[in-house]
Amino acid sequence: MKKYAGILLHISSLNNDSIGTLGIEAYKFVDFLEKSKQHLWQVLPLNPTSYGDSPYQSPCTFAFNPYFISLDELVKDGLLDSYDKTLLGKGIDYYKLFQNKVKILKKCYKNMFKVKREYEKFKNDNRSWLTDYAVFSLLKEKNNYKPWYEWKEFKKYNKNEINHFVNNNYSKVDEIRFIQFLFYKQWIKLKKYANKKGIKIIGDIPIYVAYDSVDCWKAPHIFELDKDLKPINVAGCPPDYFSSYGQLWGNPLYRWDYLKKTDYAWWVERIKEVAKTYDIIRIDHFRAFAGYFKIPYGKDPKDGKWVKGPGIELFNEINKHVKCEIIAENLGFLDDSVHKLLEETGYAGMNVMQFEFGPKEEFKHGYDYNNVLYTGTHDNENLLAWYKSLDKDTLAKVNKTCGLRSNSANPNLKLIDACMKQKCKYVIVPIQDYLGLTDARMNIPSELGGNWLYQMKYDDLSKKLINTVKKVTEENKRG
Length: 479
Prior knowledge:
alpha/beta; single chain; 4-stranded antiparallel β-sheet; globular; 17 helices; 8-stranded parallel β-sheet; 12 strands
C-alpha cells in the first residue's frame, strides 16, 4: 500500500515582506514540495480572523481571509493600479493588516468589469452565504466592530430588512463580495497548480463557530442560545496535556436535536463548500461528534460535563451528499464511543509523536495504515524544543525507541525519520521541525496574544533543505 509524506505550513507563514499570501511565495513553496517529493500540503483554516487573530475563531464559517490575497498578483492582473507596501507593516502585523489591507483591496472594485462574468458566477455559486457575510461585515464596521449581540439595529436577523439594507448600500456590500471573489480566484489557481504537480491540499476546519459570527447571527436557532441570544452552554475541554485548568473556548454549542430534524442540513452545506476548497478535509476536535464537553456559560471548565454527540447519523447524512476524504482529529480524552465512531466512519485518525511517550504509551502502538502521524501540530512546541525539554527518563525512552544517542546531531531529523518508518498512510511534519527551530511555535492554547506569528525566512527553502526532506522521504519509500 502506498504511503505519503507532507508538510504543515499555514498561508500566513509563507515568506513575504508582510503576511504570507497566495502570490509567488505560495507557488515557490509548491515547487519546493514537488522537488522534495512531498505529496501533501496542510494548511490551517482559511476563514477570516477577528479579535485574537485565530483561524479557529472566525466571523464566518464559509468566507475566506482577505489578508491572504496577493496584492502583487492583483497588480499583474490589472485589477489594482498600485499600493503602498509600508501600509501593511513588516512581517505579520495584524493591526496594520486590519487597518489597511481591506481598504487597499476595495480599490479593485472599480476594475470589476474586467472579470465581471467570473464574478457573477462566483456570486451565484455562493449565494447561500456571500451576501449575508458582506452585510455582516459592513454592519460590524458601522457599529465600531462591536459584536452583533450588542447592536441596536439588525441584532435579530431578518431577511426582508437585510434585502432593504443591501439595496440602500449596494456598492459597499458588493465591494466585500468582490474581495471574497478575489481570494477564491487566486486560491483555485494555486490549488490547480499544486494538483498538477501531484500535491493534495489538506484543509483544517474547526468543529465550532465563533459566537460573534455570521453563523450565529443568521441562524441562532441551531445553537444553544437563549431568548436574549446569549449562550446557554459553551465549548471547551477538561484538564489535559495542554492545560491543567482545562480550556474554555467559549464557542456556542450546536442544538443537535434541532439539526437532526433538518437532516443536518447546515453541516451538509458546510462540508459541501469546504470540499470545493480542499482535496482532503481535517475536522478539528472530531471526538465531540461522539461526545462533547459542555460548560455552562459564565462558568469554569471544572463545572462542565460530557454530553452525547450526534454520532454516525451525521456522517451518514453527509455521505449522501458529499464525497470527500476526511481526517478525524481524534486527540484528547478518548473513550470507546470515539473509537467506535472513527471505525464506523472509516476516516483516518491521528497520532502526534509528542504525545506518544507518556508512562503508559508506546510509540509504535496503534499506527495502522489508515492513520496520519504528525511530529507536532500548530498547537505543539517545535519538535526540537520538545526533545530538549524532556526529563531524563522520557529522553532515554525516546532515544531508545528512535535510535538516537545522547550526542546525536540533528535529533529533529532522526525523530522525523522514526515517524516516516511507521506504516501509517500519511506523515505530516511542520516546516519548523525540518528546519530544526526551537522558538517558532505557532500557537499556545488558551493564551491570547502572541500567537499565529511564525513566518519563514526567504532563504529557508534552500537546496540543502530540499535534499534533506527528499532523502528522508525516499529512504522510507513514501510517495
